[in-house]
Amino acid sequence: MAAWVFWYGGTTLRADLASAEARHLLELVRLGKVPPQDDVLDEVAQGLAVAARLTPNSPELYVAFGDLNVARSGAPSVTTAPDAAARQQQLLNQALTDYRQALALQPYAYWMWLRTASVQDDLKNTEGLWNDWRRARALGPNEWAVQKAGLRYALQDWPNAPADVRDWAIQLYLDADTRDRVRINNVAMGYKKEFVAEDDTPPAGAAPTAGQAAASGPASAPAAASTAAQ
User: Fold this and answer.
1) Residue-wise DSSP of 89-135
2) Composition bias, kind Low complexity: at what positions (predicted)?
3) Where are the domains of the chain?
4) Alpha-carbon dihedral angle through residues 85, 87, 88, 90, given to the nearest 10 degrees
5) How does pLDDT run across 94-148, given as a tens digit for each residue?
6) Phi-psi region of 111 (alpha: psi -120 to 50; beta: other; left: phi over 0)
7) Number of neighbouring beta carbons within 10 Å of residue 174
8) What distance in Å separates the CA atoms of residue 138 and residue 198, rounded to the nearest whole number?
9) Over the stretch 155-183, which tens digit does the pLDDT of each residue have?
10) Largest Cα–Cα distance in the chain?
């Protein structure tokens, strides 16, 4: 047993070293710091392939291959192809398969569920998006990454967002302190919306808004807080 543990640990270390540069480059692509050029992604694929030969059943590698397929869906060779839409869908579906293989091995990682939710959003699969985001929320309800993703998905189509998600977003704002309310509204502003609550403090010298007197927003939203713009 001791020899097996030592061998496995050594193999895992070699796999990590073999793919370290590829993973770093892929993360830069994922964060938008490096464009998803084909030559860059080919280099990433080569590094990941070496690691996959050493540890073929690694959840981290499944995630990396999923990230690679998402990145490839935005590569020039795909986006400029005559059949771009079909190729993008194929790559995104493969990414979803990769992420699900990772989740089969590590189902309690909230951030993996955020990955699948993001792909579901790209695929315009609304039901899948909310199912996967809810799984992420159940595992990491206080994680800002989970909260930010839920806010983004809800605010991009607020009237049609699930009622429980809209209620969650409003309650998140109501429960937040001043600093976190600013952070939440920074997300909302990206969608030309704003959360407003009765106890919000107006800027110095400004008259209270209608939302602060009695929160404004869609008629279906509670009076305690709402999104002020549609």
Assistant:
1) HHHHHHHHHHHHHHHHH-TT-HHHHHHHHHHHHHTT-HHHHHHHHHH
2) 202-230
3) 1-106
4) 120
5) 999 999 999 999 999 999 999 999 999 999 999 999 999 999 999 999 999 999 9
6) alpha
7) 16
8) 29
9) 999 999 999 999 999 999 999 999 999 99
10) 73
